[in-house]
Each structure stands twice: as C-alpha cells, then as structure tokens.
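Fill in residues.
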C-alpha cells in the first residue's frame, strides 16, 4: 500500500545537532527527518511522542517561545542515558 501525506501547514524538519552517548535506534549527528502531525517516518517514536506538540505548533504557524528565532526549537531526547539533541525547524516553502 502506498502512503500519501496531505500537504497541511508548514514543513517541519528535525536535525540531530548533538549527542551524548549512542542513540538506541542509531540516529547520528547531522541526520534530518521531516516530521508532521501525520508523519514520523524513521524518527524515534519515544522522542516523537515528547515533541509532538512542538511539531504541531510549528506546522500550524505558531511561534517558538524559546530563543530569538520563532521558527526553531531545540529539544533533547527523553532517554537520560543517551541524550540526542535536535533542532526542530519550520521550513517555509
């Protein structure tokens, strides 16, 4: 079955920007994942669960309450043993 994701809101990309330890599913620094309300792809489900609301915020036009860039949020993995840090970024197309 072919899967089709509807165009809905803005594109959101998660980029792995730092790591402490080894990601349990093998994500590496520099990896990028397109995420949305519908799409989590090969991204970690455990991590996705924690950032779902931030993805929604960026996808639907809300602004990041953190830092100077309203299109970017930096977040760390909930796995305290293997901290993967990502940058969630709204990409306006």
């Amino acid at each position: 079955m072919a899967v089709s994701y509807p165009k809905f809101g803005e594109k959101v990309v998660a980029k792995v920007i730092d790591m402490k330890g080894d990601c349990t599913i093998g994500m590496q620094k520099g990896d990028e994942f397109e995420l949305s309300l519908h799409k989590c792809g090969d991204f970690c489900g455990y991590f996705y669960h924690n950032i779902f609301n931030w993805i929604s915020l960026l996808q639907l036009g809300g602004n990041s309450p953190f830092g100077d860039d309203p299109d970017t949020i930096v977040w760390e993995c909930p796995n305290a043993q293997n901290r993967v840090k990502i940058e969630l970024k709204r990409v306006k197309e």
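The helical segments are 45-59.
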